[in-house]
Q: What sequence folds into this?
């Protein structure tokens, strides 16, 4: 088994390193033009722009084109310049490794860990997403590690990775809610302490890096929060921010931001930790203001680790088919709109609706499956009061 | 969700699932028949609509057109000069390009005299003369293009077109009303030379005039002063069409001036007929021409595809009597005046439509289901191959990775073929392709190789699913091509286990009638020379130089599936004897 797991990891590395070498045109397309695999916030192009500004001692956020957190720019620009073609595949290997380890935590596993590794390694969307070099993959990495740490009850590490997650993607802050569920006061205090210390360090470092100014907050988090530079993406919301609906924009801003967190408390109250964590991640990503396929890879990777639920899924085929259809049609409809001009924004928005419908159906179906699984477990062991793992 | 639940219960209660599964092949055939019948129903009253000008700013024919008798004299003057070119063309027939180049130079001087800025663009496919008039009142960001190819698509000398283009240029230059720049283009041929000019215009030419809003190509290949009607060409590459408003404007202006518009080679005597059969003929022709766009010799409007330019070609037909040549000049004049009024790009009217007549159209929502149903039929027969195979799905899944690998290798082979074949000599490899296709189809009757039944089933199902995915993603991009491929590849769904001799023969026949190379024998009869290599040549050059995706889709989407299914017919499961295999069925 261990060999197969190593093989999966090797395959992850191989596919992600070799395919860009074999087909440079695909790499160029994915890095620069693809609307599905990165957004204006997370694109490799904008990251490079930031690195260029940084290297030339210019203020990174002056031009208004960079929305990358300053530390990421600093680390990649200083230490990994020229190593990008290895760095991104390597991150994917760590994610794959962590996912395999997470799936081992659950005694009731259905898919063998190495199968999960292979699925992650050979998923064509995952490969393309990696080639596109969206920096959101770092957020995926920290989220997966955070999940792993919380399953292992490593309270200090949890605080650290939660801080890193929220630094890259502020919405991830709400992941603290499912974490409260599994911790008592003392443990939570530990986590919270590390979280605050790390966050302060990150903030101070960012402040220092952006020439002693708070400009980076405006360019990274607030741009996202206020939908300030919204552009077409896979998410649900960009369509609402076109000129026509200008009057309602403050309303939309509040509602759409609220929607990202409003489901998380009830879900965390009701469901066992592993599911509430997964669903929290999925809901944050579902209501994301800048959605991309990196999100889908993260969600599906985390869901795969809970494969014992799959037997209870009822609409899995429908959800998966919708997602596949949307992923195939979205670039075509985008091409019709942007390049050929014969389609219009409604074409692309219709497909993003299809994509989000697929995602929503999968989520709802997943919650249903969790409840079914709980019920079966409940009736099987009448004497067990506590449901689930934690 | 509750609704789905409810539906699910009803279906279970009625026991519909096993019944449907048993009848999947029938369902697939029925869907295809409905899909084809749908096209036949479209020309009935009530399914199509009258065209209308959607963009109010256009106001076609609202201004009086002045391109009349005075200009006729100038036109005749230019024409007399251009007639000398023809002698030139004939004299230097062996050294044609030099002769043409010097003529382009002469015409360049005329444009310079009028007051245009000019340039000659050289490419490996021929030279292109173009002249730009930067309209004084315009903001210099948009342009309207008028073109006339030196030789038209039938390789005739475009005398009338050239003289019209130059005299119109002279005439336009005197007006002060233009809010958009004017570009006059004279390519050597309306296909590759023009296409390379259009690409160069958007990438590396120095003399430009902003984004081209629309392009009108003129084709008047005669010295005669009179013509009877106008043929309109509008189909672009890769299933693209110009905005319907441009066609509406052209039709309404032309019929306002007098000449009738003919679509898809409608002959003169049928121009006034508007009944079911005439509409059906135009519809079927338009599907045929749209799927062959780029492969056939283009008329000039194809060359503008992909750059957001609305382009049409006007071709004068039936010379000798009827309307005079200035009428043919007044049509582009009035179209120019209409487009000149536009404040925005063409966006109001339809981009996806099929025409049933110059003033009759069907919009996308009405015609799309026909191809959609055939594509759905592929999905259903793909399901049928698995569900009615006699094997448990879990048992089949064990062979999943093997069959995925085999299919992947075939896809890779097709990808290599698609890149390799265009490099080889055209005539030679065309006959080889047809021959090898026939041999592959027939030899399965005599030769068998051991392949497990499970793998055969999975390969068939997988390849049908694959073609349905390809076709459904092509559906909106290129309806005509999708419909044609779906229709002609459909016999592939009937190929089944060949347990008996007659089934083997049926399989071979099905393979033959669904092979793109063999089918092209029928298609090529439609071409001007009726030559097979002409078709193949068009297919490859359009892919290499025009940017048309037809070749790629045919090889990667159709041939790969055909190849996979052809290979499955060779298979014989040696682990089971025929009797037991029969029992499974």
A:
């Amino acid at each position: 088994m261990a060999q197969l797991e190593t093989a999966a990891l090797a395959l992850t590395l191989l596919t992600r390193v070799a395919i860009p070498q074999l087909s440079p045109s695909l790499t160029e397309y994915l890095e620069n033009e693809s609307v599905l695999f990165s957004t204006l916030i997370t694109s490799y192009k904008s990251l490079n722009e930031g690195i260029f500004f940084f290297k030339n001692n210019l203020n990174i956020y002056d031009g208004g084109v960079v929305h990358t957190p300053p530390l990421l720019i600093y680390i990649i620009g200083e230490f990994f310049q020229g190593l990008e073609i290895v760095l991104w595949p390597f991150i994917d290997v760590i994610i794959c490794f962590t996912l395999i380890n997470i799936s081992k935590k659950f005694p009731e596993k259905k898919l063998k860990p190495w199968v999960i590794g292979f699925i992650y390694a050979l998923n064509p969307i995952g490969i393309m997403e990696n080639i596109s070099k969206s920096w959101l993959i770092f957020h995926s990495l920290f989220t997966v590690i955070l999940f792993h740490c919380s399953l292992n009850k490593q309270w200090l590490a949890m605080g650290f990775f939660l801080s890193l997650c929220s630094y890259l993607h502020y919405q991830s802050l709400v992941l603290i809610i499912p974490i409260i569920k599994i911790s008592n006061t003392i443990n939570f205090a530990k986590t919270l302490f590390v979280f605050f210390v790390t966050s302060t360090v990150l903030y101070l470092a960012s402040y220092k890096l952006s020439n002693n100014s708070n400009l980076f907050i405006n360019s990274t988090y607030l741009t996202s929060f206020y939908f300030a530079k919204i552009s077409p993406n896979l998410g649900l919301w960009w369509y609402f921010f076109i000129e026509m609906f200008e009057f309602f924009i403050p309303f939309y801003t509040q509602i759409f931001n609220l929607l990202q967190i409003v489901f998380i408390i009830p879900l965390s109250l009701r469901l066992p930790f592993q599911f509430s964590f997964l669903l929290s991640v999925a809901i944050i990503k579902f209501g994301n203001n800048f959605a991309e396929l990196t999100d889908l890879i993260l969600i599906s990777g985390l869901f795969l680790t809970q494969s014992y639920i799959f037997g209870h899924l009822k609409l899995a085929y429908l959800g998966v088919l919708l997602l596949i259809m949307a992923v195939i049609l979205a670039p075509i409809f985008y091409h019709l709109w942007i390049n050929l001009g014969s389609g219009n924004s409604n074409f692309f928005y219709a497909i993003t609706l299809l994509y989000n419908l697929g995602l929503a159906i999968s989520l709802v179906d997943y919650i249903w499956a969790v409840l079914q699984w709980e019920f079966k477990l409940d009736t099987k062991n009448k004497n067990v009061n506590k449901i689930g793992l934690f | 969700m509750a609704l789905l639940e409810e539906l699910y219960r009803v279906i279970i209660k009625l026991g519909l699932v096993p019944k449907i599964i048993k009848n999947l092949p029938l369902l697939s055939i029925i869907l295809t028949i409905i899909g084809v019948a749908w096209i036949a129903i479209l020309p009935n009253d009530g399914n199509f609509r009258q065209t209308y000008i959607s963009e109010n700013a256009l106001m076609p024919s609202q201004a009086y057109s002045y391109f009349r008798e005075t200009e006729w004299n100038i036109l005749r003057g230019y024409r007399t000069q251009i007639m000398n070119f023809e002698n030139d063309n004939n004299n230097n027939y062996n050294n044609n390009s030099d002769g043409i180049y010097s003529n382009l130079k002469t015409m360049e001087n005329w444009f310079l005299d009028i007051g245009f800025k000019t340039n000659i663009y050289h490419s490996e496919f021929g030279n292109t003369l173009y002249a730009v008039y930067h309209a004084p009142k315009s903001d210099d960001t948009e342009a309207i293009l008028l073109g006339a190819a030196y030789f038209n698509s039938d390789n005739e000398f475009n005398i009338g077109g050239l003289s019209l283009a130059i005299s119109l240029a002279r005439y336009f230059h005197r007006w002060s009303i233009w809010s958009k720049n004017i570009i006059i283009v004279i390519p050597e041929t309306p296909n590759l030379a023009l296409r390379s000019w259009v690409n160069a215009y958007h990438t590396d030419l120095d003399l430009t005039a902003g984004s081209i809003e629309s392009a009108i190509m003129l084709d008047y290949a005669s010295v005669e002063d009179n013509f009877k009607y106008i043929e309109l060409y509008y189909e672009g590459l890769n299933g693209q069409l110009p905005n319907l408003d441009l066609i509406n404007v052209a039709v309404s202006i032309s019929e306002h001036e007098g000449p009738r518009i003919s679509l898809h080679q409608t002959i003169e005597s049928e121009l006034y007929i508007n009944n079911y059969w005439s509409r059906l003929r135009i519809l079927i022709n338009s599907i045929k021409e749209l799927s062959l766009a780029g492969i056939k010799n283009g008329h000039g409007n194809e060359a503008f595809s992909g750059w957001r330019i609305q382009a049409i070609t006007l071709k004068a037909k039936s010379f000798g009597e009827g309307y005079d040549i200035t009428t043919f000049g007044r049509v582009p004049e009035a179209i120019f005046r209409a487009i000149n009024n536009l404040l925005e790009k063409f966006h109001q009217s339809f981009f996806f439509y099929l025409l049933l007549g110059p003033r009759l159209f069907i919009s996308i929502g009405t015609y799309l289901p026909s191809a959609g149903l055939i594509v759905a039929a592929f999905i259903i027969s793909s399901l049928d191959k698995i569900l009615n195979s006699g094997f448990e799905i879990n048992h089949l899944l064990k062979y999943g990775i093997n069959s995925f690998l085999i299919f992947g290798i075939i896809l890779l082979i097709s990808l290599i073929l698609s890149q390799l074949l265009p490099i080889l000599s055209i005539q030679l490899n065309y006959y080889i392709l047809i021959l090898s296709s026939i041999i592959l189809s027939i030899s399965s009757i005599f030769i068998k190789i051991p392949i497990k039944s499970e793998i055969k089933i999975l390969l068939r199902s997988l390849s049908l699913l694959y073609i349905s995915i390809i076709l459904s993603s092509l559906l909106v991009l290129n309806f005509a091509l999708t419909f044609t491929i779906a229709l002609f590849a459909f016999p592939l769904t009937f190929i089944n286990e060949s347990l008996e001799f007659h089934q083997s023969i049926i399989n071979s026949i099905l393979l033959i009638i669904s092979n793109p190379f063999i089918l092209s024998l029928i298609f090529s009869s439609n071409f001007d020379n009726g030559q097979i290599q002409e078709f193949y040549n068009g297919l490859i050059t359009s892919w290499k130089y025009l940017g048309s995706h037809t070749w790629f889709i045919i090889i990667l989407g159709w041939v790969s599936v055909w190849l996979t299914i052809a290979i499955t017919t060779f298979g014989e499961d040696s682990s089971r004897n025929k009797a037991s295999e029969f029992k499974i069925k």
Q: What stands out?
A: The interface with chain A takes residues 1, 4, 240-241, 306, 308, 345, 347, 351-352, 469, 472-473, 476-477 of chain B (CB under 8 Å). Residues 70 and 166 of chain B are 15 Å apart (CA to CA). The first helix of chain B runs from residue 2 to 14. The radius of gyration of chain B is 28 Å.
